[in-house]
Write a structure and sequence with these properties.
Rossmann fold, alpha/beta, 46% helix, globular
Length: 119
């Protein structure tokens, strides 16, 4: 693996994909040596989702660091700002968010063919 940075920001739909696709993506990232982060913005989005309670329990069990970020009001803008400021790799399956991240020259991790991680 050629990525020197081992800090990954996971967004809402990446977390939910663990349940929707029944794949241990967070485990795979941890086993590869990545430290996982998310934000209070993502937690708020999870609270609105039908799988939110399960997702929040998963975050707790994985000791994912939840950052309290008070930047941009829109969730995707806040995520991108945080990734830029902290030099995080963005783990997302949101096409538009990944496109915006690449335009800002941020590294991304995504899910390919609903079965494996593209790092």
């Amino acid at each position: 693996m050629s990525l020197s940075n081992k800090e990954v920001f996971i967004d809402t739909n990446f977390i939910l994909s663990v349940f929707e696709l029944k794949k241990p993506f967070l485990d795979e990232l941890e086993e590869a040596g990545f430290e996982l982060y998310t934000s209070t913005t993502v937690v708020k989005e999870l609270n609105k989702h039908k799988l939110g309670k399960l997702a929040l329990k998963l975050l707790e069990s994985k000791n994912i660091i939840i950052l309290d970020y008070k930047g941009a009001k829109e969730a995707d803008d806040a995520i991108l700002e945080l990734c830029e400021q902290k030099s995080f790799i963005l783990a997302s399956s949101d096409k538009e968010l990944k496109k915006r991240a690449k335009n800002k020259h941020l590294k991304t991790i995504d899910i390919r063919n609903k079965s494996y991680l593209n790092i």
